[in-house]
Structure formats: C-alpha cells, structure tokens
Specification:
With 180 residues, the protein is mostly helical. The protein is built from 7 helices and no strands. α1 packs antiparallel against α2 and α2 packs parallel to α5. The two termini are 26 Å apart.
Length: 180
C-alpha cells in the first residue's frame, strides 16, 4: 500500500512539474509575442491562470504529505512528548475542520461553477475550482491519518521532532535536500 501511495504522490509531483513548465512556456511565449509581434494567444493567458490555481492546491496536498507546511514551533519546541502530541492532534483537528468548511464551500459553489464557462476556452469553471474537492479531501485525510497514528502509538519520534521543528543538523540538511 505504501508503494501505491508513493507512486500516487510521485505522479502528483510530475503533474506539478508539467503545470509549472506549461505556465512558464505560455506566459513567456505571450510576452515574446506581445513585445515582438504586438499579438498574443488568449488561450494561454486563461490556461496559465487556471494552471496556477491547480498548481497551488495540488502542491498543498503534496507538501502536506511531507509535513513541510509553514509552522510556528516556538511553543511546541519547548514542550515534552505528551504536549507535542496534544498540539499535533489539536492542530490536525483544526486542519480537518478547515478542510470540512472548504469542502462544503466548494460543494455549495459546484452547481454555480458547473454552469459557468470560461470566456475563451469555454470549459466549465467546475474544472477550475473543483480542485478544492481534491485539496480538502487530501489534506483532511492526511491530518486524520496522523491523528490515528498518534492515538495508536505508531507516530515515529522523527515525525514528532519534525512537528516541533526539533531537527538535528543532519536531519535539517536531509529534509532541505528532499524538498529541493
């Protein structure tokens, strides 16, 4: 199962690379066309905006799996293991609550977005904003699974130290290399 999940997230990382490369190509191409030929490709302007939305939300899920979102460890780093675990569970409950609200809002807007069409590509706006379903489910599941690991005692010391920002120099260097 871990291999399937790893393969899925590698696929998401590949998708992020493709989205970013397409954005760069479209925006750069449009800049060149505008300055040199006084023209542009309308579709590329619209698609680059949509790719940016997808890139942001899919990237949030990928980074969530790596526990690399921004965090403030000022208080948590001063606590013992029990305090850190309590803060981890509380923050993950807060994340789940935000994911529920985000999912519900996306659900409420889905009917409206499904009947609105992009002005140039004429794709349903649900394809653009529906990525909120993916992000809210993905981040919510990861937070719920982490709570489950805490409750069942399967949380590793490395995960707990990472949550508290308590890295050794070697761990910080390894994490930095992994994220780059």
């Amino acid at each position: 199962m871990d291999r399937v999940i790893s393969f899925f997230f590698k696929g998401l990382e590949g998708l992020l690379v493709l989205l970013l490369a397409a954005m760069v190509a479209m925006v750069f191409g449009n800049v060149v066309l505008r300055y040199l030929f006084d023209t542009g490709i309308d579709v590329s302007e619209e698609l680059s905006r949509y790719f940016f939305v997808w890139l942001t939300f899919i990237g949030a899920v990928v980074v969530g799996r790596q526990n690399a979102h921004l965090g403030v460890e000022t208080l948590v780093s001063r606590l013992g293991d029990r305090g850190r675990k309590l803060c981890m569970v509380l923050s993950d409950l807060f994340v789940i609550g935000c994911c529920v609200v985000f999912f519900w809002g996306t659900w409420q807007q889905a009917e409206i977005n499904a009947t609105n069409y992009a002005p140039i590509t004429e794709i349903s706006m649900l394809w653009v904003y529906g990525v909120g379903f993916f992000a809210s489910i993905g981040l919510g599941l990861m937070a719920a699974l982490r709570i489950l690991r805490v409750v069942t005692g399967r949380l590793t010391d490395h995960e707990l130290r990472a949550f508290a920002g308590d890295y050794s120099d070697d761990e910080a260097h390894t994490l930095r290399e992994h994220l780059e």
